[in-house]
From TrEMBL:
Gene for this chain: gpsA
GO molecular function, one term: glycerol-3-phosphate dehydrogenase [NAD(P)+] activity
Active site: K162
Name used for this protein in its record: Glycerol-3-phosphate dehydrogenase [NAD(P)+]
Domain Glycerol-3-phosphate dehydrogenase NAD-dependent N-terminal: 33-131
General function of this protein: Catalyzes the reduction of the glycolytic intermediate dihydroxyacetone phosphate (DHAP) to sn-glycerol 3-phosphate (G3P), the key precursor for phospholipid synthesis.
Family in the record: Belongs to the NAD-dependent glycerol-3-phosphate dehydrogenase family.
Domain (Glycerol-3-phosphate dehydrogenase NAD-dependent C-terminal): residue spans on this chain: 151-287
Originating species: Malaciobacter molluscorum LMG 25693
Cellular-component GO terms for this entry: cytosol
GO biological process: carbohydrate metabolic process; glycerol-3-phosphate biosynthetic process; glycerol-3-phosphate catabolic process; glycerophospholipid metabolic process; phospholipid biosynthetic process
Amino acid sequence: MARIAVIGAGKWGQALHYALSQKQECLITSRTKRDIKNFVNLQTAMECEYLVIAIPAQQVRQWLKDNFKFNNQKILVASKGIEASSGKFLNEIYEEFIPRDNLGFIAGPSFAAEVIQGLPCALVLNSLNEEIFISFEKFFPDFIKTYYSCDVIGAEICGAYKNVLAIASGICEGLKLGNNARASLISRGLVEMQRFGEHFGAKMETFLGLSGAGDLFLTASSELSRNFRVGLGLAKNKTLDDILIELGEVAEGVKTSYAINSLRIEHNIYTPIAAEVYLILEGKNPQDSLKDLLRT
Ligand SMILES: NC(=O)c1ccc[n+]([C@@H]2O[C@H](COP(=O)([O-])OP(=O)(O)OC[C@H]3O[C@@H](n4cnc5c(N)ncnc54)[C@H](O)[C@@H]3O)[C@@H](O)[C@H]2O)c1
Ligand SMILES: O=P(O)(O)OC[C@H](O)CO
């Protein structure tokens, strides 16, 4: 009987399933049946002792309410985002259903398209309980190096915030503002997400490591990123609806922009780049945002 299962068979779920199948049998399940080796129904997957959950952040709460039965499983959360309707971080939502000692969160630069080819990659497994890291690290294949961190909130904020900054970077690229502008945007973005994280108790060193700078540099500088591609589309004045239909996959930065906008207002945090991304998603002309960012 397999001990580990991936829940969610989108791009990331499938890539993690590929990686976690290298050393042992790994099951996978999703809402719709897929033609993947070891695909099982949800009930069978849920019987595994170790679960990796890779469903979009905005669907997590409802999915847990409708499907999850706690049976002392150890869980790694693979999603990156903040719930827009409540401004809650994913660890807060999961902790409403599962004891925090059973939970871990994956962070770090990791395009599914490269993981599924077995290309080398480094990830951080974050948990308040180091035993979670120790339990899961042995499942990962040789091409993935895993690190441990107890900074769950820092990892959560890095993974979510960098998606919003990747949208900004895609806009910068789409407007053909040049390499200098993009480097400035990414480095100011890193400072901004660190300031945001500090407010919520994140450790500063997290922002300079794989989860922060690592994932931000990756996502904000490549068309492999869905969030970056959303930015490219916005710069071309495409409507958000058209961009998301064309994308056909989740771009977490869109909803997370709304969550960060509510949190920055509620907590009075200075987040100029995320604020402009939110305004552009609400219809502001990107050129006007650029002028405002250069002035403030
Ligand atoms: N793709 C990547 O490179 C990558 C890397 C790291 C983290 N992530 C994160 O992983 C999460 C999933 O991303 P993805 O790339 O797999 O997205 P995707 O768009 O490829 O797939 C999303 C999956 O979630 C499932 N899903 C959607 N709504 C659901 C619901 N209500 N209940 C259950 N399942 C539902 C879909 O069926 C699909 O299988 C996101 O938070 C993303 O930020 C993605
Ligand atoms: O394609 P994106 O923009 O969702 O980014 C994927 C991963 O989060 C990169 O680490």
